[in-house]
Amino acid sequence: MSPLLADVTLATPPALPTPHSLNLWFDDCLAKITHLITSNTLTKRPSSYSKPWWTSELTQLRRIHHYTSRLMRKNQTSPALARVARNTYFKAIQSAKRIHWSQFLANVDARSVWDAGMIAAGRAPDRFPTLANASSPPEINNTLLQHVFPSRPSPPPPLILPAFKDVPPVLPAEVSSALRKSSNTSAPGPSGIPYSIWKQVHKANERLLPSLFTPLLTHGYHPLAMKKANGIVLDKPGKPDYRTPSSFRIIVLLETVSKILERLSALRLASAARSLGLLHPNQCGSLAGLGCFDAVATLTHEVRLLQAAAFKVSTLFLDVKGGFDNVCANKLATILARGGVSAYLVAWIKSFLSKRQCRLIFQGAPKVFCPVAVGTPQGSPISPLLFVLYIASLHPTLPQGLTISYVDDLTITVGSDSVRSNIRALQYYFGTIQRQGADLGVAFSVPKTELIHWRTPKDRSDVSFAPIVINDMLFPPSQVVRWLGYWLTPTLHSSVHFLRRLALAKASFATIRQLSAAGKGLSSWCNRKLVFGAILPILTYGCDLFVPDTATIKKLNSFWHAVLRWTTNCFYTTALGALYREASLPPISSICKHRRRSAAIRLVCAPSEFNPATARIPESVPTWDQGRSADDHRFLLRGSPKAVHLTSWLGPAVNSAKHLPLDSLCHEVSDLIEEIPILPLASTDLVALPLSRIPSVTYQALRVPLLQSLLADWLYLSPPVPLLYPYSACLTPYAFTGLPRFICGRIHQMRSGAS
Q1: Is residue 368 classed as helix, strand or coil in its secondary structure?
Q2: Contact between 202 and 208 (Cβ < 8 Å)
Q3: What does the pLDDT look like over 661-702, one tens digit per residue?
Q4: Which residues pair with residue 297 across a beta bridge?
Q5: How many helices (H) and strands (E) does the chain have?
Q6: What percentage of the chain's residues is helix, strand, coil (to nearest 5)?
Q7: Per DSSP, what are the bridge partners of residue 321?
Q8: How far apart are CA 198 and CA 263, in angstroms?
Q9: Is residue 189 helix, strand or coil?
Q10: 430: Cα within 13 Å, side-chain hemisphere
């Protein structure tokens, strides 16, 4: 197919096109490419009835079973003989399944190890949508579409599509960057062409996709062929009643070629939004370099800072109702145009959000494309960015507080002399944000609102149970709030969070351990890969911000030791120091410290104008730029005798209980900065690099001593090894761990002196 694609040339687009003529040109060009793909590429035909464990012996036994059953029905043989043939057949099926599963586990490699984990986890059967007011599949289809995609006015398309000026053409490097970030396992849209095929197309002819996308951006138009999508109907888990449309969700599968163009536009829009200041500094999520940690770290830091200034602090947690579905294309285009975004991008986004079609997929569905009115289609690479730009105005500046959001999860934090004053302030600010959201067509899911009154660990005053009234609904303060995967308590104690993470890790381990019994199953190498990728992230999530106490560390270690014994197939009596080294996995306490140091390195290497957590670290800490946040309340601590300031970056160890969270976090990497003097980032070694690459190069340079410090902590915190144990600690698994589990386990046992 590659030689054929290399010779493909696309027709010239019309000079002054209409939407109809540009659609015809795009359909012809896309059909020319897809015809070559479909005619020269073999398609997969997966079947849910395929049986990889089937053998020729089972075919013979099935024939005998059916033959004896027919004879028994004709009274030509005894029922006992037919029963023996039936039992022999079904027992052979069980034996064949067991043998095939054992062979599959014995041959698992780096790619198929995750398939084994998915098979062990199992999958719930699909639930057929049974709705109260719909009795046939077409009625169910229409009811779901009307519920999920309610009708709303759509802007009429322009009669003529003029060419915008100064539109940069799509470069092959841009397409390569977009394809590099696309997963080959992502489900394709209606055409069924995955990303892997488009990667081969671009590799064979680098000018093909750019010449297909450039006229679309030049005229600010998204063709109708790329607005069609499949909607997979899935049930929401844990619903009490599945007879209402709200108990189901629709996963939209867009065309992969359309998502390439959407990702290109998202990269251009993100760069323009950063430079034009269209994003609020306290917005996290859906933006490169920002995650849940940055939002939660900023929130907890401001809470502790206001508490250090002798204020009572309260936070209101809000959730935007509908999220992406409530974005109005006309209002979004107005926001972008007023902000200074290029006219071609505004026109393309407006076209992208209008005249979309969806085809629902469920058992018995009519499978016809129906026009739907969506805000921003979920699953699109550009939808999260469009949504955060749309709600950027819902972040008011508070005199003694903070508004921070992660995509559609928004928090309002205020501090004052009393909890009652906080409640009045929260009600006022919520009303303000609600009115601003109503102007945008955005509402809040009030029943999901949560309130928390923060306390210091040494606060001996009476616990406040003062509720808040929002839209005639009463919300008492919560003792535990789950936000972005972090369990937050009024005192910000870490034990509740880590005990919840421990329960989740145990549930995951109970599923994964089915893949390997004692002496059989997956190899130690595959087990370690599953532990490192599926159990350790669950167990240590949040350790970049919270520090587990001694009692919690004991419980985490107890579970971690059981996981390591299962990984290596070692005995219970194996010395813990040797067990860590045999598994090539450090103790939990070392991993937690390493994660905190990694988070601190990422903060000091991030630009403060883009990261709200970086903008709040002390000025004495060397960072990419010395800018700090305008709504940082550190000025409230000036002259306070109770405040403990981090005045020296390279000072002695700090007390995390007395210092502010970000201060103590960043201070943990001061020894690493001493070894590699790259910060402040004005080093003469980095002058020749592009400005945008300096933070990433600095981060990669600091990761080397970071791993060395992890090994040093491992040796310091690990229990002693046996006297005759000669092997050192390393983070790379040994070569023999790829051997069968029984042999590998015996080697581990002999090396550790327990065999």
Answers
A1: coil
A2: yes
A3: 888 888 888 777 655 444 444 333 433 334 444 556 666 777
A4: none
A5: 25, 16
A6: 50, 10, 40
A7: 443
A8: 14
A9: coil
A10: 28
111: which DSSP letter? T
Six token digits for residue 328: 């109005």
**Integer Cα distance of 484 and 544 in angstroms:** 14
Q: Are 361 and 235 a contacting pair, CB within 8 Å?
A: no
Residue 259 CA to residue 266 CA, distance in Å, equals 10
**Burial of 8 by CB count in 10 Å (0-12 exposed, 13-18 middle, 19+ buried)?**
middle
* Strand segments (E) across 240-378: 248-254, 283-284, 312-321, 356-361, 370-372
245 upstream amide cis, omega within 30 of 0 = no
For residues 401 and 416, what is the distance between their CA atoms, to the nearest angstrom? 9
pLDDT digits (tens, 9 = 90+) for 310-358: 899 999 999 998 788 888 888 999 999 999 999 999 999 999 999 899 9
Give the model confidence (pLDDT) of 531-555 as tens digits.
Answer: 998 899 999 999 999 999 999 999 9
Q: Which residue type does 136 have?
A: S
C-alpha gyration radius of the chain: 30
CA separation, residue 645 to residues 112, 302, 639, 642, 670 (Å): 52, 14, 11, 10, 16
| Threshold 0.90, pTM exceeds | no
Phi-psi sector, 403: left (phi>0), alpha (psi -120 to 50), beta: beta
Specify the long-range contacts of residues 153-156, CB closer than 8 Å, at least 24 apart. Answer: 154/329, 154/354, 154/355, 154/373, 155/329, 155/330, 155/350, 155/354
3-class DSSP assignment, residue 635: helix
Burial (CB < 10 A; 0-12, 13-18, 19+), residue 645, is middle
Residue whose C-alpha is closest to residue 518's, from 583, 573, 561, 569:
569
- Dihedral sign for Cα 645, 646, 648, 654, please: positive
Mutual orientation of helices 741-751 and 576-583 as an angle, nearest 10°?
140
CB-based contacts of 313: which residues, under 8 Å, 6+ apart? 303, 306, 307, 413, 414, 415, 422, 453, 454
Measured CA to CA, the distance from residue 38 to residue 30 in angstroms comes to: 12
Backbone angles phi, psi at 465, to 5 degrees: -115, 25
Q: With contact defined as beta carbons under 8 Å apart, do 353 and 327 qualify?
A: yes
Name residues whose C-beta falls within 8 Å of residue 221's C-beta, 6 or more positions apart in sequence.
Answer: 19, 22, 161, 347, 348, 351
Nearest of 681, 601, 616 to residue 646 by alpha carbon:
616
- Token look-up 């005053």 returns 461
Measure Cα distances from 572 to 58, 569, 750 in Å. Answer: 42, 9, 14
CA 45 to chain centre: 30
Tokens of 518: 């004692």
Residue type for position 199 = K
Amino acid present at 573: T
CB 253 within 8 A of CB 229: yes
